[in-house]
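Data card: per-record layout.
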Amino acid sequence: MDGFIAITKALSDEGRVRALLALRAEELCVCQLIELLALAPSTVSKHMAILKQAGLVKLRKEGRWAYYHLPGEDASPMVRRAIEWVVESVGTSARAQEDKKR
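The structure for this 102-residue chain is written out next.
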C-alpha cells in the first residue's frame, strides 16, 4: 500500500508529471529540467526527490551533476504500469507536446 500512496502522491503535481514525460525520450540533467519547468532549482530538486522516492525515476550522479532517467526493467510492475498510465493519459496532451519541442 505504501508504494501505491507514494506513486499517487508523486503524480499529483503537474510539474512532476511533466518531468516524468520529458524523461521518456532521454536522460536529463537537473539543469535541463529547471529550464523545462521554469521553476527554482530547489523546487525542481524537491519534485525529483519525490519522484525518486516513489521509484518513478532513477538518479545518476556524475561529479557535481545529477542526471535523471526512467527506471528500466528492474522497476516494479506497479511503477511500470504507473508510467504507462501517465504516458497513455497525458502523453499526447498539448502541454506534453509543447514540452517535447523544447
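Known properties of this structure: The chain has a mean pLDDT of 92. Strands lie at 28-29, 58-62, 65-69.

See the next section for split statistics.
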